[in-house]
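Feature request disguised as a bug report, sorry. It would help if multi-protein outputs had a clear separator. Right now it looks like this:
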Amino acid sequence: MNRLLLLTLLAAAAPSSAAPPTSDLTVQLTGLRNATGLVRVCLTSDAARFLQCDKVPGAIGRSVGAGQAARMHLGAVPAGTYALLVIHDENRDGRLNMTLGIPREGFGFSNNPAMRPRAPRWDEIRFNLPAGAVTQTIRVRYVL
């Protein structure tokens, strides 16, 4: 076997040391009605359990005081398809409080889908996250 062919085969068989492409993700929030409580942001790629994002292994979450939540930096995230969920937990109890199935606290989703009398579907809030610096803007909404 000639030397050039051997080197080519060895190079092709060597494991790649290139890291997968990543995004530097920032979440910009609009519409917060006050600076009370916490804002919780969760990013997931799990299409089956995205509404329970905080329970999904590998999901990326952040909680900050509502007064500092206008821009939340999530850092380096592998490029891919994701959904973002936001809760304005005004009373800091760790959940989205409801009355008769209607949210009493603020909420938002990537792609800012139209409000309907149901939770959004994956295809309404999923987005492709490319490599590089990316800002996702989410409008926080209130029903009550």
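(second protein starts here, but nothing in the output says so)
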Amino acid sequence: MVTFCFRDFGENLGTRPLGQKVREQLMPLLQKDERVVLDFTGVNVVSNSFADECIAKLLLTMSLAELKAHTTFRGLNPVAAKSVLTALQRRHLAMA
């Protein structure tokens, strides 16, 4: 298991360009068929745009079941958790 620390990219994660940069660094870890801990400890804000670009767009390359099988979340505060969940739900529904 490997831990991917979102805090390394800042306390406030808010833009699509940053979301794309982070997703591009996360993808190689997910492709290794290893479980990845998505650690948001120390992150105060995750915007809807960042959550969609970084997390929800992973659904373009893997199914929701695969994403669940290869990742686990840690350290999400309630506001950030809502942004991530909303982005995943919207992207999943849009692809259905």
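Even a blank line would do. Unrelated, but nice: The chain is about 50% helix and 15% strand.
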